[in-house]
Design goal:
Layout lengths: L1 E7 L8 H12 L5 E7 L22 H11 L3 E7 L7 H8 L8 E9 L4 H13 L2 E11 L4 E2 L3 E2 L3 H20 L1 H6 L1
Parallel strand pairs: 1-2, 1-3, 3-4, 4-5
Antiparallel strand pairs: 6-7
InterPro entries: Flavoprotein-like_sf (IPR029039), FMN_Rdtase-like_dom (IPR005025), NAD(P)H-dep_reductase (IPR050712)
GO molecular function: FMN binding; oxidoreductase activity
Protein name: NAD(P)H-dependent oxidoreductase
């Protein structure tokens, strides 16, 4: 069975991301073509990258890195839930991504972004980062606007259009994760 990690890419107090990630998990859990797990970065506290060797070598020294590597290696694909901070993704998500290399390779990922312009710039930034890590990004992006998809900028109220986009994105992530399996096995 394909395993997809839903990575909650914000640790900020009062974050909107938790309700967004739970919304993704709620819809994803109704599916029978994959197993989905919420991965909250609050549960994986990683200091600013503190490994002496580049991640591409896979020679992890710290226990927090080894635990993070094992968690990410256990998945076939991902949905990254990201806020947009200063026209980019969150620093904590970027740091968590930067810790590893091979554990990301040959896996698919989709993006659920949120912010004043739907987190579009954060999503595009993640796509650039992903290419270097041999992550295959799917086309469909769920972009939640703080103005139209939240009440009072803080309570998620995603409509049917967003649910349809989420369904399409999950279809793509599962299909691409399955298609990339031979590359993961060969590696």
């Amino acid at each position: 069975m394909i395993r997809i990690g839903i990575i909650l890419g914000s640790t900020r107090p009062g974050r909107n991301g938790e309700q967004v990630a739970r919304w993704v998990l709620e819809h994803a859990s109704r599916r029978t073509d994959a197993v989905f797990e919420l991965v909250d970065l609050l549960d994986h506290p990683l200091p600013h990258l503190d490994e002496p060797m580049p991640p591409a070598y896979g020679q992890y020294k710290n226990e927090h890195t080894k635990a993070w590597a094992a968690k990410i290696a256990s998945f076939d694909g991902f949905v990254m839930v990201t806020p947009e901070y200063n026209h980019s993704t969150s620093g904590v998500l970027k740091n968590a991504i930067d810790y590893l290399y091979a554990e990301w390779n040959h896996k698919a990922f989709g993006i659920v972004s949120y912010g004043s312009v739907g987190g579009a710039r954060a999503a595009e930034h993640l796509r650039l980062i992903a290419g270097e890590l041999k992550l295959a990004d799917v086309r469909t992006n769920v972009a939640l606007s703080l103005f139209t998809d939240f009440h009072d900028f803080s309570k998620l109220a995603a409509g049917e259009r967003q649910v349809a986009a989420l369904t399409t994105m999950l279809d793509e992530v599962v299909a691409w994760s399955r298609a990339l399996a031979p590359l993961r096995q060969a590696a």
